[in-house]
Amino acid sequence: MRMKINNNVDINLREEFNTLTDDYGYYALLIRKSEMNCPICSSQEGQQYSGVCPSCLGIGRRIKIERIKLLGQQAAQVIATPNNSVYTNVGDIYSDAKAYYVKYDINPHVGDFIYEVSFDKFDRVVNLHGCYKIEYSEPYRMDNGRSEYKVCSTHRENTNITIKEGMLKELMKRL
Ligand SMILES: [Zn+2]
User: Fold this and answer.
1) Which residues contact 111 (CB under 8 A, 6 or more apart)?
2) Tens digits of per-residue pLDDT, 69-90?
3) Ligand 1 mean position to 53 CA, how many Å?
C-alpha cells in the first residue's frame, strides 16, 4: 500500500485504505461465530454437533453472516497456483495461509471464518471457493492509536467445499 508522506500533511491512512478497498476490494462473507451452541444440531454441552447442519454451516454454534468488502493476499512467501501448491527447492510445500485486510469498523474475531464466494447480480451466492478460519486479527494503528484498518491471518479449512456450498446456499435462502 502506498502512503503519501509529505511534511506537514496529515496522512489519513484510514481514508486511503477505505478508498483502496472500495476500488480494488471484493466481496466475501464474514461468518461470525457466537458462544451459543447451534440449537438445531448441537448437544447441550456442545460436544457433539452435525457437520452438515445448514443452520450453522456445520460449525456447531449460532452464526451471523455479514457480507463485507476486503482485500486478500496469499501469505508473502507463498506463490499461489490454482490448487495452492508451491514448489521450492526443498520440495513440495502445501500452503494454505492467507491474509485479509478489512476496514477499521469491521470486527472479525479469532475463530470466525471468511468464506470466499462469488455472487450473482442479486447478491446471491453462486459458488463457494474457499473457507478460511481466522487465527489472528488485529487493528493496524498509527502513532495516535487510531485503528486505520484491520488485518486477519487465516488458514484455509480442510473441508468438503461442495457440501459446504450446498449448506451455505440453503442458509442464505432463509435469511
Ligand atoms: Zn447446526
Assistant:
1) 33, 133, 134
2) 999 987 644 444 445 444 444 4
3) 4
pLDDT of 47 above 50: yes
CA 75, chain centre distance (Å): 14
CA atoms within 13 A on the CB side of 83: 5
CA of 77 to the centre of ligand 1 (A): 36
Distance 8 CA to ligand 1 centre (A): 55
DSSP codes, 102-119: EETT----TT-EEEEEEE
**Both ends of the chain: CA-CA distance in Å?**
36
User: How far is the C-alpha of 58 from the C-alpha of 11, rounded, in Å?
Assistant: 44
State how far the Cα of 29 lies from the Cα of 118, in Å rounded to an integer.
Answer: 10
CA–CA separation, 72 and 145 (whole Å): 24
Which of the four pLDDT bands, split at 50, 70 and 90, describes residue 4? low
Q: How far is the CA of 55 from the centre of ligand 1 (A)?
A: 5
Q: Find the 6 Cα to ligand 1 centroid distance in Å.
A: 53
